[in-house]
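Regression report. Comparing outputs from two consecutive submissions.

Submission 1:
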Amino acid sequence: MDSYQIHFNSDPKLSEQLNKKIHLFNRSKIGKYDYHPLSITAMDNDNNIIGSIIGQTGLDWLYIEVLWVDERNRKTGIGSDLLVSAEKEARNRFCTGSYLYTYSFQNPGFYERMGYSKFGELPDFPPGHIKFFMKKHFTE
């Protein structure tokens, strides 16, 4: 085996090169895969953002990156409305389900009430908390 060196760096150009390489490899295994952004925002009457959901669809799944509702507007149904709207758009994009991660301090019970189930967890991530991975299969 040839000798090699290991270098520690955070070069953005290297990251871009590696992302292109893994993208080409993935494409060779699963064919074309494109991700399309999805964002929905709730505004109050004064045009202030009071909630938003940001994600992307790809490979027939919706990935929810962020779901946020202003603290004064929580428990009013805005979070549910945003999630339902995102899921509806994902279905329009022919997605079969949705996935996300959340933390034990971020009310994972909300997602369970919305039909999501846990499929993995990382205890003590961050220390004293749990990171949950959740999914929901859409039904007709």
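Submission 2:
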Amino acid sequence: VPHNPLSSFGPYRDTTKLGLYVLWTIESIRITEINGGKHPMNRFPSLHPILAKKNSEGLELVYDNNSFQIAAKAYYYWWNKIIPFSKLKNIDPLNQTNYRWF
């Protein structure tokens, strides 16, 4: 199961979808491009490919299909913007959603 090698524990659940791994990998590439690969500690968006939803109490880990679909759609629209990657990499695909990488 893919995860940040700097994490001191294994993934929470083995219920993560392959598509979520792909989005997490894309986000890792985006973050690495932003910092120019100079900071090896900052190459991953989170310790594990898990989404968290913002709510009134903070963040709640989510594993449901609806949350994945919202994140996937956000990345789809982000990728299909007609701007150079040098600018696109600075846009957080999840910025317009209530989701973050946990």
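Expected: both submissions complete independently.
Actual: both completed, but the second showed a warning that disappeared on reload.
Relevant detail on submission 2: The helical segments are 18-34, 65-79, 85-88.
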